[in-house]
Amino acid sequence: MTPASVARALGFLTRLPVPARFFGAGEVALSDDAGSFALAGALIAVPGAVLLLIGAVFGAPPLMMAGIAVLATIALTGALHEDGLADTADGFGGGATGERRMDIMRDSAIGTYGVLAVIASVLLQVTALGALAETGVIQAAFAFVAAHTASRAAMVWHWSKTPPARTDGVAAASGQPPTTAVNAVLVGAGIVLALAAILATGVVVTALAAVAVSAATAGFSRLSGRLIGGHTGDTIGATEQIARSVMLVGLAMAA
């Protein structure tokens, strides 16, 4: 994990303009930068966390500021993961066979399953973050950073532990993250969780939420393998949304 790999990860995960010098003369596979996804996730959460703190200074309603924080990160990422969740929900919910499910997922149109999945994800994140902000805005800001970090680690785990479901697409072209990248992202997530989530809600609560995220990620990965034979770029994005929602809800419920 280097500054250049973090910059490249941010370039992929967000709409931030990353200078060409970070990419060097040759092409670097996205999977090789997967080890930096956890730190990139923490950085992506910072603007939303800052907005939470600013809102508290001016006495803004916690739930409203939670909504603004979540929307700010969606704008920063260009709804990259929400799009993956929507496509996955449409495919898994509307297809009778693996081939048909992937055909639906390729379609840029969003159906009922996709709309409901995104609404549910955003609603859970906003209400959970709002509940945390009610008990303490600083704790909520730390929890927000922790959730974004854990969710990026979860997507790398899903990516590495399931085979590509098809031969085309970004995920297939990038290959699977090497063991070193998986280890790096897990260690990075662990460090950030120790610094952020534990400061926000305590060791026991953080551990319970992390277990819930692990279970949800493993369960979804197994479902993805059964329904389409592995992962796609859409299921990687869906994993991020599921993990982030579970982390925030777990922290809010156990806090």
Task: List strands and helices in order, with pairings.
Blueprint lengths: L2 H11 L23 H21 L4 H16 L2 H15 L3 H9 L5 H24 L1 H25 L8 H5 L4 H17 L1 H5 L1 H26 L4 H22 L1
Helix pairs in contact: 1-2, 2-3, 2-7, 2-9, 3-6, 4-5, 4-6, 4-12, 6-7, 6-12, 7-9, 7-11, 7-12, 11-12
EC number: 2.7.8.26
Function: Joins adenosylcobinamide-GDP and alpha-ribazole to generate adenosylcobalamin (Ado-cobalamin). Also synthesizes adenosylcobalamin 5'-phosphate from adenosylcobinamide-GDP and alpha-ribazole 5'-phosphate.
GO molecular function: adenosylcobinamide-GDP ribazoletransferase activity; cobalamin 5'-phosphate synthase activity
What would you say this structure looks like, in words?
It comes from Oceaniradius stylonematis. It is a multi-pass membrane protein. Pathway: Cofactor biosynthesis; adenosylcobalamin biosynthesis; adenosylcobalamin from cob(II)yrinate a,c-diamide: step 7/7. This is Adenosylcobinamide-GDP ribazoletransferase. The protein is mainly α. 77% of the residues lie in helices and 0% in strands. The protein contains 12 helices and no strands. The model has no long low-confidence stretch (mean pLDDT 91).
